[in-house]
Amino acid sequence: MPAYQFILNGQTVSVDAPSDLPLLWALRDLLGVTGPKYGCGVGVCGACTSHLEGDAFRPCIQPVSGVAGAHVTTIEGLAGDGLHPVQQAWIAEDVAQCGFCQPGQIMAAVALLRKNLDPTDADIDAAMSDNVCRCGTYVRIRAAIKRAARQLREAGTELR
């Protein structure tokens, strides 16, 4: 089996895996990174959403071979020490119920706010439309994104 090396949450990692192994399974089963959740396995629910070179992507449909040499960030690597502003907004707005989809929701929200720190409801809906919450906390998700955007704008902070 070939070894694939990539940067995961700021650290270089290497995994021995078949080239077509979905990255989600390499993360969870081989590297012990369990923030990205398995929801559907076909890239439609968003529970596994992470970042590849800063953009949201679905590791359940990305083969591990496709991230060789790339930067991958999961919810675990989002803030380093402490909480990311979006995570803080999630807590302030009491978004999570069961919490299963929340890592993917947060990662999608961060990707949106990297590109647009003043999103409209339509912008938020479009960016988050591929992330499913079975508990239906969409109103609170939108409120948390708006809160985080407002706080980031007021602080003059750009997301990395």
UniProtKB/TrEMBL annotation:
Limits of the 2Fe-2S ferredoxin-type domain: 2-78
Signal sequence segment: none
Gene3D superfamilies referenced in this protein's UniProt entry, alphabetically: 3.10.20.30, [2Fe-2S]-binding domain (1.10.150.120)
Keyword Oxidoreductase applies: yes
Record's keyword annotation contains Iron: yes
Pfam family, one: Fer2_2
Keywords tagged on the record: 2Fe-2S, Iron, Iron-sulfur, Metal-binding, Oxidoreductase
PANTHER family linked to this entry: BLR6218 PROTEIN, OXIDOREDUCTASE WITH IRON-SULFUR SUBUNIT
Name of the protein in question: (2Fe-2S)-binding protein
Organism of derivation: Pyxidicoccus parkwayensis
Organism taxonomic ancestry: Bacteria, Pseudomonadati, Myxococcota, Myxococcia, Myxococcales
